[in-house]
Amino acid sequence: xxSARVKEFxxxxxxxxxxxxxxxxxxxxxxxxxxxxxxxxxEAVSVGSMKAFMKGDVFTHYREHVLAIARxxxxxxxxxxxxxxREGVSKGKGGSMHLFxxxxxxxxxxxxxxxxxxxxxxxxxxxxxxxxxxxxFAIFGDGASNSGAFFESIxxxxxxxxxxxxxxxxxxYAIGTHISWVSPFTELYNKVKNYMPAVRINGMDVCEVYExxxxxxxxxxxxxxxxxxxxxxxxxxxxxxxxxxxxRSQEEIEIFKSKDPIENLKKRALSENLVEKSFFEETDRKxxxxxxEAVSFAQNAGEPEISELYEDLFCKECSNVVS
Length: 323
Ligand SMILES: Cc1ncc(C[n+]2csc(CCOP(=O)(O)OP(=O)(O)O)c2C)c(N)n1
Ligand SMILES: [Mg+2]
What we know:
Bound molecules: thiamine diphosphate, magnesium ion
Helix content: 40-55%
Number of helices: 11
Radius of gyration: 19 Å
Number of domains: 1
């Protein structure tokens, strides 16, 4: 990894982490309503994958704030969306679980567990027919990998050699259900080994995530069919703001905190003399300012107009959709 890349990774992961910590605070103050699923601890997956998969289409589940920011969404517009404001990325009508920006090829997130996987496969099919090789990136959790939609998606993507990366974020839990209670094995890439190349990586290491997604991207771009990555990672917070996470031991949380993606990247960069110490201090200050700006932007933004309530529900260009 070169110095510029490491700096970019650190900046984006730190921005994601501070964004989430502040979103949590604003939620507790009552400024954010509805669901809020935090990505704290899993930033390496979001940043490493989005920096490798720069083109193409992205379909994600509801834990997607950091992915959206790493993809290029303005943190101000993401925070405004969480606040339910008109200047939000989805005009304040989507909220935390529905950050959407077609210009960035970002069609997330989906609140139905596994529900976006067949949609992502359909998009990959369309891209293949169009002769567009950038393909699709679909990210989902360990819980989603037990759904029927998952197995159907894997099957048809493999049979039709579709250009899609399936990225499984294995944080071991589906709300309070540990993966070992509902799957015969916890190394989930075993589910798809007969369908496509399937690997398991350390999702707490941003460089490893980046390199593996680059490998997968080259594979699908060459028309070889789908590719599967399972990344082991961990969320430090509960499933959402309404979950205290009491089903996990403090000891387990501490084990994963010792593998923290941000702290470990910093340590490694310093020990290998890749980045000077002052960069981290400057970046931390810069990030704090950006977060302050995002919150004040969201606070001062306007409420969506009631007259727009029924807009943006159906695709006007689609002839087969009646609106
Ligand atoms: C079809 C469906 N079933 C159940 C739920 C309720 N639900 C929301 S999130 C979730 C857990 C999903 O866990 P996982 O796929 O591991 O993703 P993570 O939250 O860990 O990122 C469940 C069961 C839902 N939203 N959709
Ligand atoms: Mg999970």
